[in-house]
Amino acid sequence: MLPPRVVRRLVLAPLVFVLTVAAIVGLPVLVLVALFTSVPARRQRRGLRVLGLAVGWLLLESAALVACLALWVSSGFGGRIATEPFQDRHYALVRWFLSRLYALATRAFGLRVEIEEPPATPDELARRLTRPVVVLSRHAGPGDSFLLVYQLLSLYRRRPRIVMKAALQFDPGLDVVINRLPHAFVHARRAGAGLVIEEIRRLAAGLGPRDALVIFPEGGNFTPRRRIRAIERLVAARKHAEAARARGMEHLLAPRTGGATAAIDACPEADVVFVAHTGLDHLMTMGDVWRDLPVDQVIRARWWRVPAPEVPREREAQVPWLYDWWERIDAWIAAQRPVAAIPADAPGYTST
């Protein structure tokens, strides 16, 4: 159960500073432990890599919380926090945090991210600067979600809006910053589909030319069991055509189309961008990170843009259209193969 906001501010936020100080003071011991756990050759110094990422994360989170306090004071103790200048400053803070964390993670694990984008035609380049977008992304774990938000903020200079699970507010930095920006937290068990859709509609209706509404139509990370359950829900709802198409997708859950169609309807001038990532989709827990985080590998992403005039407006056409795209993303994921190791000092980002 999520504690009240006052408890999170008075207990969880200071705890970040306590952990940061403890990590710095105990760093020699932690390094020895990391070296011991990294002895087997197959670990590839995994203990040291994870330790470096964890300590770096704590330092960045502590710095972000201090910056949040400074912004709160300078805004008149929160009085102007919702104004455009302070919204931009908070987005800049999130961009700084994610950029530093991205650089740390890619260097610590020798990763490279390759993005295949839409062709850079004059129309595409103009739309990147002037059109709001609804981003429909595969739900592939926290690693891929982090990459998506980082790319929107740092590479495309977008201001993302996201509907997230309320439990993410256990992270103090995320809790403080995101609650000051136009996002929405929903309780997974208490929020029905109607409430989630209303939040999506609210966020979409206020999109500006620099904004991006991010939706994960699958509603959760892919597992074989969830895939079967999603198909069973479609059958129970007598949506047999959608169920048949969902059975043909091996790497994705059937999309829950209500949120996507609500966003498209609420902001008809928005382009729709479909996003697929692969390479971090098996990392769901800290245990997964320890056992399986790839070292010296390439993480792939693919983006497709559909201009607003080409987006179907009738509900009867939107659902098959969304399934068409989901099948296309599933085929793209299936076509990816493990990529050969690259030098650990390779640059952290390549756009193709």
Strand order of the largest sheet: 4-3-5-2-6-7-1-8
Class of secondary structure makeup:
alpha/beta
- Give the biggest beta sheet: 8 strands, mixed
Using the alpha-carbon principal axes, give the shape.
globular
Helix content: 40-55%
Could you give the count of β-strands? 8
Specify the CATH architecture of the domain at 82-217 and 255-351: 3-Layer(aba) Sandwich
The rounded Rg comes to: 21 Å
Order of helices and strands: HHHHEHEHEHEHEHHHEHEHE
Uncertain runs are 338-352
Q: Oligomeric status of the shown chains?
A: single chain
CATH class of the domain at 82-217 and 255-351: Alpha Beta
Distance between the ends: 44 Å
The DSSP helix count reads 13
Mean pLDDT: 87
Quick overview of this protein structure:
By secondary structure, the chain is α/β, with parallel strands linked by helices.
